[in-house]
Specification:
39% helix, flat, alpha+beta, five-stranded mixed β-sheet, 348 residues, Nucleotidyltransferase, domain 5
């Protein structure tokens, strides 16, 4: 009786636990929270700063601007947990916030994770979520969640292909009959693009910038395919003199800087297509490839991928929230969750 009562009163959640951003969906409400996966901690102790709710957007605004006693860190790297204690604190904060700070009841949680992580890494996610307050935890691969979130007919006997470009990983999968037939997971995505921009500015302009500035440049003038060219004024620190300095950077230069990480993503897509059975590959000629994730927002990405693969490419309507929407749908479709998890999901 008590177990049934707890189930009725809990707030079931879906979590897109991303390297750059974490999104939380609640059953019946959809995506209700989207914040950076950043936590401010006391340097040397990794004790989370509680007084200012230094998690998420508040913590991100501290990146690169903290005093010596504080670090603003990302507890996930390349889609996996790199700091267990901080991840647990971050998850606990997001779960409480999504549950409207309701205490006493532990939610059941579906978490989307990169398809390429190891069994040990999956266990780390589960343990962190349970310690953060989840009553039960179910893991689903990100490309599957993304495909569900954008409405691909994953249960039908035909091929659907999704490319999810997040902050830490790029997930490529061909899906049919509620299963991933072929998939690739590479740890090259948005963060690698930012790092490539940082390296380019350091080498070409002798200008040192931080990750937030590189991300801003990528959003404003970054592109994967020639288009209307533009320029941006970049402010940073001279690597030799150590003094503040600015430089004017052209969009074609940023496109050149992004060529290597984008090339790795193209190669992962091509390898997945090569490993796809012929009948499913034939389906993709008509259905094309759908791109999701924050990386899908890079200008000209669809044209570049279509040129490289010879397959039509579409950017999802809401690429940033596709995975989170997928977890929300699974909270409503327990039969589908059971099928994907290959059996009864332990009485969800």
């Amino acid at each position: 009786m008590l177990k049934n009562l707890l189930g009725l009163l809990s707030v079931d959640m879906g979590i897109d636990l991303g390297t750059a951003n974490t999104l939380v969906s609640v059953r019946g409400k959809g995506v209700i929270l989207s914040e950076p996966s950043v936590v401010a901690v006391q340097k040397g102790t990794h004790a989370v700063l509680l007084r200012g709710l230094a998690v998420g957007q508040v913590a991100k605004e501290m990146e690169g601007k903290t005093p010596g006693s504080i670090d603003a860190i990302r507890p996930l790297k390349d889609g996996v947990i790199s700091d267990f204690d901080v991840t647990e604190a971050m998850l606990a904060y997001f779960i409480r916030k999504a549950a409207n700070r309701r205490w006493g009841f532990r939610p059941r949680v579906v978490i989307a994770v990169p398809s390429g992580i190891t069994a040990i890494e999956r266990r780390a996610v589960t343990n962190s979520a349970e310690r953060a307050g989840a009553r039960r935890v179910f893991l689903i691969d990100e490309p599957m969640a993304a495909a569900i979130g954008i409405g691909l007919p994953i249960e039908e006997p035909q091929g659907s292909m999704v490319v999810d470009i997040g902050g830490g990983t790029t997930e490529v999968a061909v899906i049919s009959l509620a299963g991933m037939v072929t998939c690739k997971s590479i740890r090259i995505a948005g963060d690698e693009m930012d790092a490539a921009i940082i390296a380019y500015l350091a080498e070409t302009y002798n200008l040192q910038v931080g990750q937030p500035t590189a991300e801003k440049i990528k959003r404003q003038i970054g592109s994967a395919w020639p288009d209307e060219e533009s320029v941006i004024e970049v402010k940073g620190q001279d690597r030799v003199a150590g003094l503040p300095r600015r430089a004017t950077v052209r969009s074609e230069e940023i496109r050149e800087a992004l060529a290597k990480p984008l090339g790795a993503i193209v190669e992962a897509i091509k390898q997945t297509l090569e490993e796809t059975p012929p009948e499913l590959a034939a389906d993709l000629i008509d259905r094309g490839i759908v791109v999701t994730g924050g990386g899908a927002l890079l200008r000209g990405l669809d044209r570049m991928l279509a040129h490289e693969t010879g397959v039509a490419v579409t950017i999802a309507e809401e690429p940033m929230t596709s995975v989170a929407h997928g977890t929300a749908i699974l909270l409503e479709r327990l039969d589908l969750l059971s099928t994907i998890l290959d059996g009864n999901p332990n009485g969800f």
